[in-house]
Amino acid sequence: MRMNILVTGGCGFIGSNFINYILKKDTTVKIFNIDCLNYCANVSNVNSHPNYKFIKGNITSKDLVLHILNEYSINAIIHFAAQSHVDNSFDNSLQYTTDNVMGTHVLLQASKEYGKIKKFLHFSTDEVYGEVDLEHPGCHEKSLLNPTNPYAATKAAAEFLVRSYYHSFNLPVVIVRCNNVYGPNQYPEKLIPKFIKLLREGKLLTIHGNGSTRRNFIWAEDVSSATELIFHNGVLNEVYNIGTKQEYSVMDVATLLIERMTEDRTINNHVIFVEDRPFNDFRYSVDTTLLKSLGWEEKYTNFIENIESLIETAT
Asked: What cofactor requirement does the entry state (predicted)?
């Protein structure tokens, strides 16, 4: 059966990387990308391809979603679309609920009414697990959810809706929870491209608190390969963590970039410390045993080389 996949948010960072990845590999799939082109999206992130069609629109419109499902005989959905910048969620939390929760609910309801979806993959975040300490080995898929900021809470709420449609309406769903992603075409509100841009402009790097907060950074193409594998081989109603052991603090990242992008390489000359945001989780970590049981292996594991490639290609 030919796959006609509706990708939501495909002009964003993770979605566009996935579309470019899948269209390069699979000549039989057709991708229909719905994106409202929020501030961090860009149509040019997706390469031109005969099996690709862009549709400008908002997933909160059920009429539009149903029209797309019927017009293009969609048989699968990969749902990336979301407001994702944590800092903004503190000031604009109602919009996060509208886009992340209501948007997901509209997609689910439209899929139910349409009745021809064979797979609905929902892309979520490791932040739904909440903060863990340094000794924690990593949250597994059955760990309790404990979101501590509005963004993470909306993603957790969306997950509960997704699973409810499996149990109540037999919608064939699967959920992924992912570490922090980095790579080409990332909007410079996120840590790594933001720091690269600031250093290119000769500006100081803003460090919240003392910079000790830690994140696991996974390369975008590794996320795309994991997503593809889960899409094809993942068990319905299962959750899969997509993660890495490439873990660095904010100061680690700042130091690495300053040493490669400035002449004096003196850390204190290029950073400014500001008050930390409320509830800035110290660390997230996930266990990826289940994903690896499907045969996935992380490929781009050299964090320093990856960072250097981003520095070289940054404009």
From this structure: NAD(+)
User: For domain 4-180+220-243+285-299, which architecture applies?
Assistant: 3-Layer(aba) Sandwich (3.40)
pLDDT at 1 over 80: no
Confidence of residue 89 (pLDDT cuts 50, 70, 90): confident
**CA distance linking residue 314 with residue 40, whole number of Å:** 16
When pLDDT is averaged across residues 77-84 and rounded to a whole number, the result is: 94
CA proximity to 52, closest of 73, 34, 40? 34
Q: In one letter, which amino acid is 277? A: R
Give the DSSP H/E element, type plus range, for residue 55.
Answer: strand 52-56
pLDDT in the model for residue 304: 97
What contacts 268, CB < 8 A, 6 or more positions away? none
Show which residues are catalytic.
126-127, 151
Alpha-carbon distances, residue 41 vs 13, 86, 88, 186 (angstroms): 7, 17, 16, 9
User: H helices within the chain, ranges in order?
Assistant: 13-25, 62-71, 86-91, 93-96, 103-114, 150-169, 191-200, 220-233, 250-261, 289-292, 303-313
User: Distance (Å, rounded) from C-alpha 142 to C-alpha 42?
Assistant: 35
Neighbours of 270 (CB within 10 A): 22
Per-residue pLDDT reduced to its tens digit, 152-208: 999 999 999 999 999 999 999 999 999 999 999 999 999 999 999 999 999 999 999
Angle made by CA atoms 157, 162, 166, in degrees to the nearest 5: 145
pTM of the entire predicted model: 0.96
Closest CA to 147 of 188, 97, 78, 98: 97
